[in-house]
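Customer escalation, tier 2.

The customer says the design service returned an amino acid string that "doesn't look like it belongs to this structure." They asked us to rerun it and document both sides in this ticket. The original structure tokens are below, unchanged.
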């Protein structure tokens, strides 16, 4: 049996858009005051995704690896800034460290996926590389912001305890080890929770999209499993790398805790 690809025209898109009237109607009926925000969000989403669609159509014609990596770097930069902006505290070099962790983790895992798993030739084919890189970055933001926020907050709260350990002869790693572990666990929990309910509670977007495009459900499932392996490993690498960089800044070589380097995001 041949499965046809279902296209969505502007008329069908308009009908789908009418569903948002449910949100607006509920907001008005319950006096939530969200009508203006919802309308702005809808307009922004439509404009942004429409522009992105045309932009990707152009990007997919690129055949220059340096241009494609430059685009990946820009995406990584935006993701790293977004991750840091969600934290309550900052320290010197936090944005650069975030970018370094995000870019290196995303590049390494995506490269392995392109060459070893999908075996795309050339490996920098933008039609495959950019979407995978984007999915990886989207999940990194949440993980790195949660882990970094937990680590810095933990050090600020447990400052006296950590300094007592250091004064008694503990190394900086011995004093920070528990904080690093808890922060890493916090950063990885969201992706673990997502994987736990995949296929039972939720049907991921990649499977849904491929099935609607006419792909065999079993093959679509293989793609989704692969992507989550990729995302989970990238999040683990990124979170660990960022925490180790933060550790090296907040503890100096003389095994001292430098809480003076921490500052509130409001300051």
């Amino acid at each position: 049996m041949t499965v046809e690809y279902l296209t969505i025209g502007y008329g069908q898109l308009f009908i789908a858009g009418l569903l948002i009237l449910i949100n607006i109607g509920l907001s008005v009926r319950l006096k939530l005051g969200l009508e203006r925000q919802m309308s702005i969000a809808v307009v922004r989403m439509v404009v942004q995704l429409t522009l992105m669609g045309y932009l990707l159509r152009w990007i997919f014609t690129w055949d220059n690896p340096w241009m494609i990596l430059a685009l990946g770097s820009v995406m990584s930069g935006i993701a790293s800034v977004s991750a840091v902006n969600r934290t309550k505290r900052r320290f010197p070099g936090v944005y650069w460290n975030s970018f370094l962790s995000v870019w290196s983790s995303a590049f390494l895992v995506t490269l392995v996926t392109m060459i070893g798993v999908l075996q795309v030739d050339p490996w920098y084919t933008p039609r495959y590389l950019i979407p995978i890189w984007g999915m990886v970055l989207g999940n990194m933001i949440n993980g790195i912001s949660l882990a970094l926020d937990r680590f810095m907050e933990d050090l600020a709260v447990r400052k006296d305890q950590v300094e007592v350990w250091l004064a008694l002869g503990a190394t900086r790693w011995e004093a920070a080890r528990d904080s690093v572990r808890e922060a890493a666990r916090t950063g990885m929990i969201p992706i673990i929770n997502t994987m736990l309910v995949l296929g039972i509670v939720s049907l991921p977007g990649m499977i849904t999209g491929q099935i609607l495009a006419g792909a065999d459900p079993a093959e679509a499932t293989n793609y989704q499993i692969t992507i989550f392996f990729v995302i989970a490993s990238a999040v683990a690498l990124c979170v660990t790398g960022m925490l180790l960089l933060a550790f090296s800044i907040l503890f100096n070589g003389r095994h001292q805790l430098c809480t003076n380097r921490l500052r509130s995001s409001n300051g």
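Tier 2 assessment: The sequence is consistent with the input. The chain has a mean pLDDT of 86. The chain has two domains: 1-59, 63-264. Sent an explanation to the customer and offered a walkthrough call.
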